[in-house]
Design brief:
240 residues; mainly alpha; two-stranded parallel ribbon; 5 strands; 55% helix; globular
């Protein structure tokens, strides 16, 4: 028996202002979240991009092809009501950040990690949060003041920014990389590549695994979508 899928029931998707926000309309009817909340978006640029996702649907609706719609649902239904808890969770990645744990051997990998990751740790230190790097996997305690500075930075973000940052942190396993994308210092593609130094080094030595490569491509695509969400959040509303 084939799996039931929701079918397209509208002709066109448009956007309209709704108070201080924007909404997507399907043949004039506003889109709601899965929990039946009004899908009120913070800007016209994001509303247009989400409307384009709905317009691009064929006869059967494919939620996986609608990353911005799914992110908006998460922002409204999950993050908005518990932004503090989300910020706490993301801050924990700073306490065990990928960029702070270096290979002891081989020396070529250790050198590659230092050359790629040290500039980002130095950049973060310039933001008031100096994290300590170590060799091996044994936990290293990070300075409480540095973690407090990171937590304060996260507390200043909107639920929408936290939603985008979530994938930029959890997928590579690094708050440093996520914040660097948030600040425009690096791109999502660069963050993904920087998170895979060890995997790429091993692939150079032993060859690539198709299944692992496919999983990595999925993570990269999700990070690209999160970066696009940030870009749309910051875009100025087009006139008219």
């Amino acid at each position: 028996m084939s799996e039931w899928k929701a079918r397209r029931f509208w002709t066109s998707a448009t956007v309209a202002q709704a108070g201080d926000g924007w909404q997507v309309l399907l043949d004039g009817r506003p889109v709601r979240t899965p929990g039946k909340q009004p899908l009120i978006l913070p800007g016209r640029a994001l509303a247009l991009a989400i409307a384009a996702e709905w317009d691009a649907q064929a006869d059967a609706i494919d939620p996986q092809s609608m990353p911005l719609t799914r992110a908006a649902n998460s922002a409204l239904e999950k993050v908005a009501g518990q932004a503090g808890a989300v910020a706490d969770m993301l801050c924990e990645y700073g306490a065990t950040d990928l960029l702070c744990y270096r290979a002891a051997h081989p020396p070529q990998l250790a050198a590659r990690q230092a050359a790629a990751w040290n500039p980002l740790l130095d950049w973060l230190a310039g933001q008031g949060a100096r994290l300590v790097a170590t060799q091996g996997v044994m936990p290293v305690a990070q300075d409480a003041a540095a973690l407090a500075a990171l937590r304060a930075r996260l507390a200043a973000l909107s639920p929408w920014e936290l939603t985008a940052l979530h994938d930029l942190v959890t997928l590579p396993g690094s708050l440093v990389l996520g914040l660097a994308v948030l600040d425009g210092r690096i791109t999502a593609d660069e963050a993904h590549a920087l998170s895979r130094l060890d995997e790429d080094f091993q692939a150079e030595e032993w060859g690539r695994d198709d299944e692992a490569e496919a999983a990595a491509a999925g993570r990269r695509a999700a990070m690209q979508s999160a970066e696009r969400l940030l870009t749309l959040l910051r875009a100025q509303a087009a006139p008219g």
